[in-house]
Amino acid sequence: MLLQGILVAQTLPIKYIRSAVFRCPDSLCRSQQGQRVAGNVIQCVPHCSVCGREMKEYCRARDTGDQVLGLLVSPSALENPGSKEFVRHQSTLVCFQDELMVDLELGVRYDVPGLQTNAYFQAWNVQRWVSDTDAKIRHQELPSLLMPPAISALNAYLSHCCPSSPWALVAALAAQMAADMFPTPALLHLKLGLILSLASQGRNHPPVPILAVGADTLAAHHLLRHATLLAQRCVTLSSPSHWGPLHGTAHHDEQGNSWLEAGALLLASTGVCFLGDWAKFKSTNLRSSVLSVCLGCHI
Length: 299
Ligand SMILES: [Zn+2]
Prior knowledge:
By secondary structure, the chain is an alpha+beta fold. It folds into 2 domains: 2-26 and 35-128, CATH 2.40.50; 172-296, no CATH class. It has 8 helices and 12 strands. The strands form 2 sheets. The protein has a 5-stranded mixed beta barrel. Strands 9-12 form a two-stranded parallel sheet. Helix 3 crosses helix 4 and helix 4 (188-199) packs parallel to helix 5. The chain is elongated, with a radius of gyration of 27 Å. 21% of the residues are buried. It binds zinc ion. Zinc ion (ZN) binds at residues 24, 26, 29, 31, 48, 50-51, 53.
C-alpha cells in the first residue's frame, strides 16, 4: 500500500525494542538456552517449551532502535488552491523506524509504501515526492519542456515585435494576471513581483517573499489572493491567533512523546503562505516574526 501525504507533525526520536532474549527462570529446567523474540516483546512474553513457565528477559541482550511517529495529511488538503471543493481531511499516523526517520522535514510531501497495522501505518520506505516538472529539470530535460501553445504563440509574436526586450514576455504575462478585476497596465510592478515570487518556488533557494505597501490595501489584497490560486500549494492565514506561531509549536502527548507541529509557513513549503492584511497582526511578537521571515528568507 502506498501512502502519499504531507508531513504536518512528528515526534522526537523514541526508543523501541527490535528484539529481546528470554530464558526460563527455573535453574533446574532442561531448557536453559535463550530464545530471541522479535517485535513488541512487552505484550507477548513467551513461555518455556519444556516446563511451561513464563520466561524472563535477559536484559543485556535487548536490541533497540529509534523511531519517529509522524502525521501525514492528504496532499489535496493544501494543494490545488484553485479548487472550489470543500473537503475535510484527517491525518494518518505513520511510524518511521531507524534510517527511515533521518532527514524527515515538516511540510514536505512524501511517498510512503508500507502496511497499516492496528496502531499505525508502518513505513517500509520513504521518498520525497518530486513533481513531473522538477524531475525533468533534475534530469536536464529542459528542452523537452514545452510551453503551452498559447504562451508559445505569444512568445513568438513578442520576439518579432520587441526583439530587444528580454522582459516583454514576463510583462505581458504579468499584465494578464487578474485581468477580470484590474485593467492590464494597473499595478504592473506588483504583478511582476508576484510572477517572480511564483517562479521562485520549489527551487533549491528560498522563495521571494512579497510585501505590498500602499494606500489601497483592498486592491492589493485581491491581487495577492488571486496570485495564490496559481501556486502549487497555498496556506491562508485567516486569523493569527487561530494559527499560533508561524513556524510551528511543540507539545507532549499522554505517552510522554514530544511532538513538533508545523505552523503556517512550514505547511506552505513549495507554495504560498498568504498572510493577508498587515492590520490583523496586532501583537508586536507576530509582526516581528513575520518581518524576520521576510527579511531573512528563512523559508
Ligand atoms: Zn522451563
